[in-house]
Amino acid sequence: MSIVLVLLGFAIMLVLMFLSMPVAVSIVAVGALGGYLMFGMPLVDMMGGVIWSSLNSPAILAIPLFMLLGELLLRGGIADRMYDALAVWLGRTPGGLLHTNIATCTLFSATSGSSVATAATVGTIALPALQQYKYPMRPALGSLAAGGTLGILIPPSINLLVYGSLANASVGQLFAAGLIPGLLLAFCFSLYIFFAHRDAGSEAAGLVDMPLREKLALSKYLVPPLIIFGVVMGSIYGGLATPTESAAIGVVIALVFVAFSGRMSVEPLVTCSLLAARTTGMVVIVLMCALLLNVTISMTGAAQAVTHWVASFGLDRLSLLLVLLVFYIVLGTFMDAMSMLVLTVPIAVPMVVAVGVDPIWFGIFIVLMCEIALITPPLGMNLFVVQGVRRDGGSFSDVMWGAVPYVFVMIAFTLLVMVFPGIVMWLPDLMAGRGCRPPPPKGGGGPPAPPSSTPTPTRRSPRRSGAPRWRPRRGARRSTSPTRRAAPSRSNRRATAPKPCRMSSR
Predict the structure, then answer these.
(1) Residue 217's pLDDT is what?
(2) Do 237 and 292 belong together in one domain?
(3) CA–CA gap between residue 178 and residue 158 (Å, rounded)
(4) Is 130 among the domain residues?
(5) How far apart (Å, rounded) are the C-alpha atoms in residues 488 and 250?
(6) Has residue 103 been placed in a domain?
(7) Is residue 134 part of a domain?
């Protein structure tokens, strides 16, 4: 397939979105029409079965469960109490309640899975206190918008679930890969606040001037989200439950905490269910259309065409990722995060895998790009969410200029992850047991030497000084390549193969 046709199809989707067509309609128009023009009705007829088999997956069921979990934490009053508990401990640090914004977003992200939900929830809770204690609005709004982006990186994450479905990657491994980068990014946000806005909130000293006993009493409100996160993620990382099963367990635990808080009734439960169903429907429709586009891309060979085209430039791994970094930053200025994810993953994943990039690592990279898109002016979704929860009627430019420094912090963090990929892959490798295998022998050929210091001579001729410790079978062809490794016998393979660690992630 010509690369020109691939670029033409991508351009048509962008034009349709610029004309205010829904994302799903734009994807269907290009995917279905392109498949029909290339292969006729047989391809269109098979799309339904392929899409149904992809959606009929337990991983997809985790999306509405995590949505419901976030709504229960919000409607059950757990989120606002959590903010109060963090405020009394972080209010005295340089930056004051700005650190509380980041910490609350981090903790809420560990249970909600949604960036928009995190920004809206924490913004609704935090803005009255920020305005009461006369915090500067631009840094306050920027910290809420940036902190909300952690909702799609810190597991559980809806975007990682969607990426896993599109790229056929392990959701458990993706959740493990997102934990450490998410926490480190939150720390980078707080580090920026510490140096850039250390004088903010000088009038909020009275908020934290209370006895230690009262602070400890308020800390009990941090227990519910910590327990939910520990049970949900611990069951996944420990191999005890799948992401779907852990999401169901998290919902049950959240219902128990809501019942103990005294806010359990029929009306809030119905409201939470309806809101979760509405958001889930939007995500699943976009995902279904993306899967339809995947069918067309697979059958037409568009991914292979793009891969060969990129390979013709001779780019190495780092150069290709730098190009994609610039591409996604530009794309994020006029496209929302979910649309950017579902449109580019089918093409980008085969392209980066061809240069040796792990698809699990690339999942975190593209989610970081989605995070940048969420706060990149002028169309960042979190900017509009934070502006929507304001009640003072301030200008939208306050949110935009407040979020710009965090964009540069996230770009710098992405470059750090590109240079040190172990930040992402350490925990998934540990879960999969890859970190437990010994490194391959240096120097290449043959099985390892026997443990005895005195080698045993062969039957036909005694071993002479300087002779190799292992020789191929008589009559076997000798490789002329110095890097080619001889295959050991079946008995040698049984004796020398390292046993993998029995750790699983479902």
Answers:
(1) 84
(2) no
(3) 12
(4) yes
(5) 49
(6) yes
(7) yes
